[in-house]
């Protein structure tokens, strides 16, 4: 038998992204920006909408910079089988270089026809209870997640979040509930099945709870240019522009693309600089100018 191990190389791959946040945080619009950036074509973006057709509000909005994407409302019951069929049809519609947005994946868990409903129905069968029902319901959940992860195109899911709590002992020795942050409405740790997990707050600022790409500790507003960077890295193996001072990846801002920022810093300072290092360089130059005067 020949050895199964060979030298590893990074291959072209598909985006598997989770976007989490409370109501009003901008999950849908952020996902649309990411999708457009990744594929470069609004016609290659398909939105599956469980949010009472609110996804239609973002269609072809000049004020938001959105275009005409593919769209299908998903109505109750929110069964795993229904999600799988919609995802299958969406993948066929966008092709292998397109993007599916599932908005939201939380309905498949705790809404009508979701996995929790299925678990309750199983528990009512003779010889079953709440504990033993999880074996069957868990397999249904795993099949749903694995199906979404295995489609031959890029995938973005949104997850609603709620405040999470843990029981801790306070300084008086009493056990009390303590807020531990926003927990996604889905099975525990579902977001970790994805390559990237964005957490967005009510001010529309995103941070990362998981990343296997180059984003590292990035935080900020999600833009189309950020999606384009991810798409190039995943599909072409293109390495992102890095700051020649600190080595950090140069990230886009809501006002400027990475290309614009690189061009500006090279013109002003003779090298690629991130925003933080560019600001320090300006301060250094201003201080030197003050001393000379």
Automatic annotation (TrEMBL):
What sequence ranges are listed for the domain AAA+ ATPase? Answer: 13-204
> What Pfam families does the entry give?
AAA_24
* Alphabetical list of InterPro entries matching this protein: AAA+_ATPase, P-loop_NTPase
The family database entries (SMART domains) matched by this protein are listed as: AAA
Q: Which domain of life is it from?
A: Bacteria
Stated name of the protein: AAA+ ATPase domain-containing protein
Species name for this entry? [Eubacterium] siraeum CAG:80
């Amino acid at each position: 038998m020949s050895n199964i191990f060979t030298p590893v190389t990074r291959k072209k791959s598909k985006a598997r992204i989770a976007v989490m946040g409370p109501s009003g945080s901008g999950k849908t619009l952020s996902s649309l920006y990411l999708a457009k950036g990744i594929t470069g074509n609004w016609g290659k973006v398909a939105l599956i909408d469980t949010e009472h057709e609110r996804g239609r509000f973002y269609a072809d909005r000049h004020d938001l910079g959105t275009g005409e994407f593919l769209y299908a409302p998903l109505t109750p019951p929110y069964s795993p089988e229904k999600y799988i069929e919609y995802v299958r049809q969406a993948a066929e519609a966008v092709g292998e270089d397109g993007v599916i947005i599932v908005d939201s994946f939380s309905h498949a868990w705790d809404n009508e026809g979701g996995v929790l409903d299925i678990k309750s129905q199983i528990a009512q069968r003779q010889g079953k209870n709440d504990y033993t029902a999880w074996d069957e319901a868990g397999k249904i959940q795993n099949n749903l997640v694995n199906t979404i992860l295995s489609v031959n195109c890029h995938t973005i899911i949104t997850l609603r979040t709620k405040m999470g709590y843990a029981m801790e002992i306070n300084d008086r020795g009493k056990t009390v509930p303590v807020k531990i942050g926003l927990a996604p409405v889905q099975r525990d740790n579902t977001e970790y099945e994805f390559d990237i997990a964005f957490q967005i707050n009510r001010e529309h600022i995103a941070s990362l709870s998981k990343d296997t790409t180059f984003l590292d500790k990035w935080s900020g507003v999600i833009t189309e240019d950020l999606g384009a960077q991810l798409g190039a890295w995943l599909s072409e193996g293109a390495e992102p522009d890095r700051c020649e001072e600190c080595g950090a990846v140069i990230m886009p801002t809501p006002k400027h693309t990475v290309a614009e920022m690189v061009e500006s810093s090279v013109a002003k300072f003779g090298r690629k600089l991130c925003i933080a290092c560019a600001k320090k360089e300006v301060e250094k130059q201003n201080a030197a100018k003050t001393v000379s005067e």
